[in-house]
Amino acid sequence: MEIQTSTVRYDLSYLNQVFQGNREMINNIINLFLQQVPEYIREMEECVRKNEPLSLHPLAHKAKSSVSMLGIKDMENDILQIEQDSKHLRNLEGLPLLVSRVRENCQIVYDQLKEALERPYVRE
After folding, report:
1. C-alpha 113: how far from its chain's center?
2. How far is CA 17 from CA 10, 11, 28, 99, 116, in A?
3. Distance separating alpha carbons of residues 79 and 97, to the nearest angstrom
4. Which residue in 16, 35, 48, 69 has a CA-CA distance of 20 to 30 Å to 113?
């Protein structure tokens, strides 16, 4: 599956609704994502490398809310799949590909969000 990099991969509608357009609060959530989620994904990659599927579940669970709040649909679906498959020890052969796709998506979204934070106003 080819990941498109030109289109915006996130949707701030939910955050704009919850925080009533409060830019500071929205940017705080974005910054939390930027700080935490890449680290969770690095840890997931380590779990895959060490063949420790049960350790993937809590990491995917932690990443899920940030990914969901930022409306990153493709990544959200993969995170949910990783969470469920690792928890129930099923489809283990597919976990490396899912984690790899999440990493690729995260890098694209990370770059897009960093750029968005530098713009005068983030409302998308």
Report:
1. 12
2. 15, 11, 15, 30, 18
3. 12
4. 48
Domain boundaries, the chain: 13-118
Going through the chain in order, the beta strands assigned E by DSSP cover none
Cα radius of gyration (the chain) = 15
Q: Is the dihedral of CA 63, 67, 73, 74 positive or negative?
A: negative
CA angle 43, 44, 48 (to 5 degrees): 115
Task: State the Cα–Cα distance between residues 66 and 113, nearest whole angstrom.
Answer: 13
Distance CA 18, CA 65 (A): 14
pTM of the model: 0.86
Spatial contact of 113 and 10, defined as CB atoms under 8 Å apart = yes
Q: Which residue has the tokens 């976990």?
A: 95
CB burial class (10 A; 0-12, 13-18, 19+) of residue 48? buried
Which is nearest to 72 in space by CA: 8, 17, 116, 118? 8
Helix 56-69 and helix 73-88, axial crossing angle in degrees, nearest 10? 160
